[in-house]
Design goal:
The complex is a heterodimer of chains A (505) and B (233). Chain A is α+β, with helices and mostly antiparallel strands. Chain A has 17 helices and 21 strands. In chain A, a hairpin with a 5-residue loop joins strand 8 and strand 9. Chain B is of the alpha+beta class and 233 residues long. Chain B contains eight helices and eleven strands. Chain B is globular and about 60 Å long. The chains are: A alpha+beta (505), B alpha+beta (233). At the A-B interface, helix 17 of A face loops of B.
Chain lengths: 505, 233
């Protein structure tokens, strides 16, 4: 019987996991412990989320008001991709990957858009485009917690978030919090972990281990020997320079993440309430560190000398599997991909939720569940890697070798290449996605492909369809105008939440 | 459904000073003309039982703060008040809030609550009415009485807020769309569904009872029948 679970690692992934497991297992009499290293600092740069995080926070019993107040949260409704197309051909260019689905009132307008290509795709299919353009919040002060008039996620301070989740897990969900370094594990004859060895607390016996130790995957990788599969052959960036830039307390806050392409990668730009997190992601084979620093400095308006920045090496890829014997890796221990679509917290949350909902009671169940978990999470990882790659390989930039290399067919997976070929003829549809558990579904591909002017040939459109499109377009425009007019300014709403809080109902 | 009038910050509300307002007099208005267009009147816990005989008592969100508050509905249409008529108020009981007009309390420099008034109100005059100051510049008996009354009212409002928060915390309040007999739909009202009250576990029910809230909850439930009265106009 599994009675005792230890989560190793006190970063965002570890505490997300502790909350999921504490919430699901506490009532079943299984003890959940989080073991945090007192010596290893957390990475603390994952600051973007996707809307699914709302379900998790709500499930944990967290008040959205408390979360917003304590983690310097801002609302995120989109990612705006800037200059991902050739500026000599398109001029300065930008498009939104919105969180609202591009199927207004259930109808796919893509074929009609392809016929004309008038204006940005996102604005054609979603009222939310007008909301983000107007820098408005996704909800009113009267809108209940976790509900929105448009779909939203959060930007947050990763360190504060880990502390907040720690507080909740330990005080509300009965999770035990210990501080010690794991230096080795004890395993039985079949390879299952039976104890963690620490200099501070000695031998900690356990029935199940969740490895949230970060990049190094100390337990799954180093102790259980699960190999790392590099994907640097496909995704060419390998380094990030991260910096925090203070912002004025009355400056407008964009309700979206900015991702601005440059000659050898891109720059993330996430606005919290009193600072921006900015990071320049690049391929060191295509750009020197010196040149990267200069680019970052230019982007933040020449302040780099007065701020301290961190260089983060990025090893793109994933472990061959994530659940081996009685050990599951979650978070960066699973693998890493550049944060272009905010997938770090997403994957940690998704995996921890999956684990908590189907947690084994004994070894027989453990075997069954491990196989299923590995199948699903491996599939998700490969989907994510392909989706990130999509952003690069549909670009028409030719201004540097980086962009040219990114379109080399040797860097594109056969699955993605086949889809791209299909989408030359037809826009992505639900039928192109066979699994119900896609992390990025065809809606996401639509925003990226047509944000980037992908040359799908015009479709045959029946007159009845075009008539329906006309009605729905009118509704989209009307709703866009109404939302952009009535929703509060982003910072103003955050200020009100600070003052009055949001209601639960 | 929204409320807007009582917290309107553009109103010209000022703290009263003998030097500036020594001549000010209060003109009586038994018809409560100022409320002619108030669709909702804030109510306090202590008057729930009485007002329930004549008004629907419901909960709404303040559009500025999102916070829930208890109000008497006077109409189903914004900007209308079916209880007001020039000949006189159409109910025997009136919510206490109407008696406070045009006064309120504001903190002075030391943070103490002092009397303030909406100077643009037609209830204030320098010629007719009952004086707020004595000839020597000290507060009149009327002013002292108003100050005491406002302080008690404010305390009751705070007590009522605790009541509303308790209902919310117990999960008793539910957003409800009312479908009226004439097909009209009313949004933005929060009510206590009788079924939820019945299903409340004994310890929570006892908390409501001991805090003196249970009677108000029943008053709220009974008062809802007056909504049909508002439909008829």
């Amino acid at each position: 019987m599994i009675k005792d679970v230890i989560v190793v690692g006190g970063g965002t992934a570890g505490w997300l996991c502790a909350n999921h497991l504490g919430q699901a297992l506490g009532a079943q009499g299984i003890r959940v412990t989080l073991l945090e290293s007192p010596t290893i600092p957390t990475i603390g740069v994952g600051e973007g989320t996707v809307p699914a995080i709302r379900q998790s926070l709500r499930k944990f019993g967290i008040s959205e008001t408390d979360f917003i107040r304590q983690c310097d949260v801002t609302f995120k409704q989109s990612i705006q991709f800037v200059n991902w197309l050739d500026t000599t051909r398109h001029g300065a260019n930008a498009y939104h990957h919105l969180f609202d689905v591009p199927l207004p009132y259930g109808v796919d307008l893509t074929a009609a858009w392809l016929a004309q290509r008038h204006g940005p795709y996102a604005g054609f299919v979603a009222p939310q485009q007008a909301v983000v353009d107007a820098l408005k919040a996704p909800k009113q002060i009267t809108t209940p917690e976790y509900q929105g008039l448009t779909s939203y996620a959060y930007h947050l301070d990763a360190r504060k978030f880990a502390g907040f989740l720690c507080q909740h897990a330990t005080t509300q969900l009965g999770v035990r919090h210990l501080r010690a370094d794991v230096v080795d594990v004890e395993r039985d004859a079949s390879g299952y972990i039976t104890a963690l060895l620490t200099p501070q607390l000695g031998r900690l016996a356990t029935d199940f281990v969740v490895d949230c130790s970060g990049f190094e995957a100390f337990i799954l990788g180093q102790k259980l020997g699960v190999p790392f599969i590099s994907r640097s052959d496909s995704l060419l960036t390998d380094t990030a320079l991260a910096v925090q830039v203070p912002t004025a307390l009355d400056a407008p806050i964009p309700p979206y993440t900015l991702a601005t392409a440059h000659q050898a990668g891109w720059i993330w730009d996430i606005h919290l309430t009193s600072r921006r997190g900015v990071g320049l992601v690049y391929s060191s084979a295509h750009l020197s560190e010196q040149a990267a620093c200069e680019k970052l400095d230019r982007y933040i308006g020449g302040q780099l000398a007065s701020l301290s920045f961190r260089k983060i090496p990025m090893r793109v890829g994933r472990r061959q599997q994530f659940w081996q014997h009685n050990c599951v890796a979650i978070g960066l221990a699973q693998g890493f991909v550049e944060p272009l679509e905010a997938t770090a917290i997403l994957m940690a949350d998704f995996s921890a939720d999956l684990l908590s909902k189907r947690f084994p009671r004994d070894r027989a169940e453990n075997e069954l569940l491990a196989a299923r978990f590995n199948q699903r999470v491996v599939h998700s990882w490969d989907q994510i890697l392909d989706f990130i790659k999509l952003h690069y390989c549909v670009s028409d930039r030719t201004d540097s070798q980086f962009w040219i290399d990114n379109r080399d067919s040797a860097t594109i997976s056969p699955a993605l290449a086949a889809r791209l070929a299909l989408w030359q003829s037809f826009p992505p549809g639900r039928d192109d996605f066979f699994s119900k558990f896609e992390i990025f579904d065809f809606e996401n591909f639509l925003y990226v492909l047509y944000g980037m002017q992908y040359p799908t040939r015009p479709q045959f459109c029946r007159p009845e369809y075009l008539q329906l499109v006309q009605q729905h377009r009118a509704r989209v425009q009307q709703q866009a105008a109404q939302l952009a007019e009535t929703l509060p300014e982003h910072r103003a709403l955050l200020e009100k939440i600070r003052q009055y809080g949001l209601q639960k109902i | 459904m929204t409320d807007d009038v009582f917290s309107d910050p553009t109103h010209d509300v000022q703290i009263l000073h003998a030097a500036r307002h020594g001549q000010l007099k209060l003109v009586p208005d038994p018809g409560f003309t100022h409320a002619a267009q108030e669709q909702m009147l804030p109510v306090v816990l202590a008057e729930f039982s009485q007002l329930a005989c004549e008004y629907p008592l419901v909960f709404v969100k303040n559009t500025e703060t999102g916070q829930l508050k208890a109000v008497a509905l006077t109409s189903l249409q914004a900007g209308h008040n079916l209880y007001y008529q020039p000949a006189g108020w159409r109910a025997a009981r009136v919510p206490q809030v109407l008696h406070q007009h045009p006064f309120t309390l504001l903190p002075d420099a030391a943070g103490q609550p002092v009397l303030a008034a909406l100077l643009s109100s037609s209830r204030l005059s320098s010629s007719a009415g009952e004086p707020l100051y004595q000839p020597d510049g000290s507060a009149s008996g009327l002013q002292q009485q108003l100050l005491g009354q406002l302080k008690r009212f404010l305390a009751q409002m705070q007590q009522t807020q605790l009541f509303v928060e308790k209902l919310s915390a117990l999960g008793l309040l539910t957003a409800q769309r009312l479908q009226l007999a004439d097909g009209q739909e009313i949004d933005g009202l929060y009510l206590v569904p009788a079924a939820k009250l019945s299903a409340l576990p004994a310890p929570e029910l006892q908390q409501l009872q001991q805090a003196g809230y249970l009677q108000a909850v029943y008053a709220h439930l009974i008062s809802l029948q007056h909504i049909e009265r508002l439909v008829r106009g």
